Amino acid sequence: MAEGGSHCTNDAAVDYYGKNIATCSSDGTIQVRSIDNPSDPGVILTGHQLPVWQVAWAHPRFGSILASCSFDRRVIVWKDSGRNGQWSQIQVFEEHQGSVNSIDWAPHELGLILACGSSDSSISIFTAKQGNASAAWDKTKIGSAHEGGVTAVSWAPALAPGALVSSQPASHNTYVFKLVSCGCDNTVKVWRFSDGSWKMDCFPPLSKHSDWVRDVAWAPNIGLPRTTMASASQDGTVIIWTQDHSEAGSDQWQGRLLNDFKVPVWRVRWSSAGNVLAVTDGSNAVSLWKEVVDGKWSQVTAL
Questions:
Q1: What does the alpha-carbon distance between residue 262 and residue 54 come to, in Å, rounded to a whole number?
Q2: DSSP-derived 3-state class of residue 295
Q3: Where does the pLDDT of residue 5 fall: very low under 50, low under 70, confident under 90, or very high at 90 and above?
Q4: Around Cβ 281, how many Cβ atoms within 10 Å?
Q5: 193 three-state secondary structure
Q6: Which 3 state secondary structure label does DSSP give 172?
Q7: How many Cβ atoms from other residues are within 10 Å of residue 303's Cβ?
Q8: Which backbone phi and psi does 62 adopt, to 5 degrees?
Q9: pLDDT tens per residue, range 67-118
Q10: In the 8-state DSSP scheme, what is residue 206?
Q11: Where are the domains of the chain?
């Protein structure tokens, strides 16, 4: 382990139980610390050679597993051995020819699957066989996903919109294998896995931004017959995308402006209940937004 650097922190992620937080830095390191014990310095993970852009925790059913992506074109999967904070690299993926800008774990119902978006314009999907992170992984790729580069990826919920929670376990065949991506071509694209390959699931691409789309986030499924996503752009706007499944022929994506922040917007993140959206913009402000009526959104607070 190395000493923690003083460089810019690029991302932070809290684990499933809210016990630990991982941060990544432009000095190529990752720090994992206890939230319950803030005086504990935690551990520093070293393995990337250049800035680390993002970190993501896998669901705990697969163990204490963390993924990271970097400007060094690599994705590393780390595992905590459970012995005095000893972490190890259990997988290093070097499938990309450019910076890997975004990573996101699939819903745990689908298995241990990691999607990665890169500046080489492609999206890679890594799937651990039998959910064993230390075993072999299958690798697939969506080539030429976004001209100029992929900036963010986000998985759809595993259950289809409007699906009711049942006392019986859902069949694997009823789960939805979808993800959304955005990029330097100013568009948002939805992808669906079917018949052994990934295919675009929105025609044409979703295009309401006039500059790079910096981030995209798929909202959790709250039981309504509607799908919701949010996208954030260099043009200063956030768009709320909805797909209504309640009426025949109304399943086209509709985009509505949430707000024009007048500065680039870097991140959008949904609450676990899917009813509050957090927006981080270029003025270092974080604002919270909630849908009020007729698809309109209101700012709840600013941090």
A1: 25
A2: coil
A3: very low
A4: 19
A5: strand
A6: helix
A7: 8
A8: -100, 0
A9: 999 999 999 999 998 777 789 999 999 999 999 999 999 999 999 999 999 9
A10: B
A11: 51-271
The encoded tokens of residue 83 equal: 């012995």
* Whether 184 contacts 174, CB under 8 Å: no
Helices (H) and strands (E) in the chain, counts: 0, 24
Within 10 angstroms of residue 50's Cβ, the number of other Cβ atoms is 14
Interacting residues of 34 by C-beta distance below 8 A, sequence separation 6+: 19, 20, 40, 42
The Cβ-side half-sphere exposure at 295, using a 13 Å CA radius, reads: 14
DSSP structure class, residue 284: S
Sheet-wide strand order for 29-34: 9-14, 20-25, 29-34, 43-46
Q: Which CATH superfamily is domain 51-271 in?
A: YVTN repeat-like/Quinoprotein amine dehydrogenase (2.130.10.10)
* pTM of the predicted model over 0.85: yes
DSSP 157: P
